[in-house]
Write a structure and sequence with these properties.
Layout (H helix, E strand, L loop, with lengths): L1 H24 L27 H10 L3 H6 L4 E2 L10 E2 L30 H5 L4 H20 L31 H16 L15 E4 L6 E2 L2 E2 L4 E2 L3 H8 L1 H8 L5 E4 L3 E2 L2 E2 L5 H10 L5 E4 L3 H7 L7 H11 L8 H11 L5 H17 L23 H14 L1 E5 L13 E5 L23 H6 L3 E5 L12 H10 L2 E7 L20 H11 L4 E6 L7 H4 L6 E4 L7 H9 L16 H6 L19 H4 L17 E7 L3 E3 L15 E3 L10 E9 L5 E10 L10 E10 L4 E8 L1 H4 L1 E3 L5 E4 L1 E7 L2 E8 L1
Parallel strand pairs: 3-7, 6-8, 7-10, 12-13, 12-14, 14-15, 15-16, 18-27
Antiparallel strand pairs: 1-2, 4-5, 8-9, 11-16, 17-20, 19-25, 20-23, 21-22, 21-26, 24-25, 26-27
Length: about 775
């Protein structure tokens, strides 16, 4: 017994010491140029913050041998003790909050969780550009706080700004939706929030963001076709008109520090081996100030899965030569040395790549010594999961929730009139489902059950064990609905239905959810509110047309406190203002249209209907931009021109012949900007958040979109009050379209501007 007690005591002491070591190891940021520990490092130019970054980078690269340089081409960068450089892990994620998906970030007793915001698709549904940036600022502060205690890096591979082209894509909820303008504004705003410093120093970064996945990437695993083998056949017009604009905006407007190339091929070339896409466009045309990173193991994929080249050395060489700077994976670290020896790639190409990587770390202050003495050195565990941060998460969910149907006398429910609420459905007590893909550990969870129970007495009958719902418990659910004053049914998906490497085949509610919804609605004595938790659209035509289902809410995946936001909307503590960022298609769409068809524009010859609200010609369940309110906002056009002109040079061919369009270049548009002024009046009884869309239907030339979003603004307006809103429209920037060769043009003729329920004709002439 005595020996046993001694053994236990020794075990306790060892475990305590080990745990103390772990906490101690996590209590200090990883950084280079620690001149306090090694004063001799101060003599190195790369450790001198007073020098310019190019000079510092050049000094560092010159001190490295070839093997050391190659070692810095991969995400798990090694230490170089003689130069005071520690190991650094590049791969961290922050899609909608600090995540522990990448190896660069972890949680511990010191920081057990971080604020988990709604998935991007729901935040985008707010159409609130200032909210996009505000979330980025909170995420970067929590990231810096975790970095300061050794739990995170400084390079975060977010956001995902791929176009949600097809409703079956499993990763659609990671994105801002189907529209290039909304996606561009989201990407640039979130990046600014992550990167911009409070001191306004544009040469420095708070954390480094990364826009991904470049480009035309929106298929993961559909009917045997996976992202590792998919060759996206994309017209130049669709590439420049739909897929590229968000990345261009991310670089030019957001000044993002990194772009990630994708797994797929585009027109026969792997994106991570395409010099035109990487060196030509990102680095050349857009002047990226940062580094280009591969999606994880993409170089391995282009060699082993796509067989694009014959040897691993060729794979390394073709990627680096194309413009890749950093490999998420080990492939470049293993094979680049042999590629140099074989003459397939030259050492100056390696120098260029690692220089871009080192420059990014220097902008982050990684080579400036002790971060506790830098701008964000005071951030720590106390700054993670703060009440203010979590409240912003709830507010983002409130603003994004979309009211799709609301019969007279249904929502909002009265907390006084509803004495007993029935809560049904597989997502009624959802927790982890609410935070979707690339999630971290949240500060806490507020499920729909918890949120609604906090307002009124609630009877909970899940009806299904999970979203697959193979055998619903109809009897228990209908009994609860029949006895309640109102019924809320929470259905939809989760990561078992739509996720990375998991595309959908169908758009209907999974399993027997529709049967459960219909029978519960038939049994209910009061209003029936259907709440859909999903990333992509669902064909809920049955519910839209069922008079027993009085209201429909789409709540995306609403983040850690989604249940509180849902309750706030249902009981009228918040007036819903979200709008759909994607088109909701009927099931017939996916039965006719293969996911592999990348064409955005319809083809009347084959009956192909096109994609997204901009081009789609078929029937819909709900449309892009749909969303109701508990109040009525009236629109009145105050000012808008009937015609605008573009100025042409004296020898321009369109001055002597008829032209459908002219080039959208600055000299044509110097004096062609104009204002549109609107008067908005809140005719209802509730304060409203309201999104005002400015759409245009251009003349039917160059296969132009049927309708396209030119701009949007989110405002707040009190009941019985009015506001004047102004849009400034630049003819070349806003009214431009992309022709068949990918060139920007301004179509001549009649453009129809749409604002709310108003239409206004505008003629563009020479």
């Amino acid at each position: 017994m005595a020996s046993s007690r001694v053994a236990k005591l020794l075990c306790f002491l060892l475990c305590f010491c080990f745990r103390s070591f772990q906490v101690s190891a996590q209590s200090r940021a990883v950084f280079a140029c620690d001149t306090n520990s090694n004063p001799s490092l101060a003599s190195f130019a790369f450790c001198n913050p007073a020098l310019g970054i190019p000079q510092r980078v050049g000094d560092l690269v010159n001190r490295l041998n070839l093997d050391e340089k190659i070692a810095f081409l991969v995400n798990a960068a090694p230490n170089v003790t003689r130069l005071g450089i520690p190991r650094y892990e590049w791969w961290s994620e922050a899609l909608h909050g600090v995540s522990n998906v990448g190896p660069g970030t972890k949680f511990s007793d010191l920081v057990p969780g971080a604020t988990s915001f709604p998935t991007v698709i729901l935040t985008a549904a707010s159409f609130n550009a200032s909210l996009f940036e505000a979330i980025g600022k909170v995420v970067s502060s929590e990231a810096r706080a975790m970095y300061n205690v050794g739990l995170a890096g400084l390079t975060f591979w977010s956001p995902n700004i791929n176009i949600f082209r097809d409703p079956r894509w499993g990763r659609g909820h990671e994105t801002p939706g189907e529209d290039p303008l909304l996606t561009s504004k989201y990407g640039a705003g979130y990046v600014r929030g992550l990167q911009q410093r409070d001191d306004g120093n544009k040469d420095k970064l708070k954390v480094a963001a990364c826009c991904k996945h470049y480009t035309a990437y929106d298929l993961d695993n559909w009917k045997g076709v996976d992202r590792f083998h998919f060759n996206a056949l994309v017209t130049q017009q669709d590439l420049d008109d739909t897929f590229q604009p968000p990345f261009k905006s991310c670089v030019l407007d957001g000044n993002v520090a990194s772009v990630m190339c994708s797994y797929n091929q585009v027109n026969g070339k792997p994106t991570c081996a395409d010099p035109n896409l990487l060196s030509g466009v990102i680095r050349g045309q857009w002047k990226l100030n940062g580094y280009i990173v591969t999606d994880c193991d993409s170089v391995d994929v282009l060699y082993n899965a796509q067989h694009y080249v014959k040897t691993p050395e060729e794979a390394a060489a073709v990627s680096i030569s194309a413009g890749v700077d950093l490999d998420c994976g080990s492939f470049l670290g293993i094979h680049t040395g042999a590629a140099v020896k074989a003459g397939l790639v030259k050492e100056p190409d390696i120098d260029r790549a690692v220089s871009n990587n080192f420059a990014t770390l220097m902008r982050l202050g990684f080579f400036d010594g002790d971060p506790s003495k830098q701008l964000y050195g005071n951030l720590g565990p106390k700054d993670v999961c703060t009440p203010a941060n979590q409240e912003l998460g709830i507010e983002a969910a409130r603003q994004g929730i979309v009211l799709l149907k609301n019969s007279q006398g249904s929502l909002p429910l009265s907390p006084k009139a509803v004495k007993n609420l029935a809560l049904v459905g597989p997502n009624a007590n959802a927790t982890s489902a609410m935070i979707g893909n690339y999630e971290g550990i949240p500060c806490k969870y507020t499920s729909p059950l918890h949120g609604l129970t906090a307002v009124v007495a609630t009877t909970y009958a899940p009806g299904c064990a999970n979203v697959s719902c193979p055998a619903p418990n109809i009897a228990e659910s209908t009994k609860a609905a029949a006895a309640a004053d109102a019924t809320v049914i929470v259905v939809g998906g989760d990561l078992s239905v739509e996720a990375e490497m998991r595309d959908r085949n169908d758009l209907t509610l999974p399993g027997q959810q529709q049967q459960l919804v219909t029978q519960v609605a038939n049994a209910a004595k009061g209003p029936v509110i259907l709440v859909i938790m999903s990333g992509g659209g669902m064909d809920v035509t049955f519910a839209k047309t069922n008079n027993k289902i009085t209201s429909i809410l789409w709540v995306g995946y609403p983040g850690q406190d989604g249940g509180a936001a849902i309750a706030d909307v249902i009981f009228g503590f918040h007036n819903p203002s979200g709008r759909l960022p994607v088109t909701w298609y009927p099931q017939s769409f996916v039965e006719k249209v293969p996911m592999t068809n990348m064409n955005m524009r319809p083809d009347p010859k084959t009956g192909y209907p096109g994609r997204t609200y901009r081009f789609y010609t078929g029937e819909t369940v709900y449309n892009f931009g749909d969303g109701l309110s508990y109040t009525q906002i009236n629109h009145q056009l105050v000012q808008a021109p009937r015609a605008v002109s573009v100025t042409l040079g004296g020898n321009h061919p369109c001055k002597s012949s008829l032209c459908q369009s002219v080039e959208a270049v600055d000299e044509n548009c110097q004096n062609s900007a104009f204002d549109i002024r609107l008067k908005l009046y809140n005719a209802g009884q509730m304060k409203a958040g309201h999104t005002v869309f400015l759409f245009s239907s251009p003349p039917p030339v160059h296969n132009a979109p049927r309708k396209q979003l030119l701009d949007f603004q989110k405002i707040s307006i009190e009941p019985k009050q009015d506001k004047i809103l102004k849009f400034n429209v630049d003819v070349c920037k806003h009214l431009g379209i992309t022709d068949e060769n990918g060139q920007r043009k301004v179509a001549l003729g009649q453009h129809v501007l749409h604002v709310g329920d108003l239409k206004h004709s505008l003629t563009v002439k020479i």
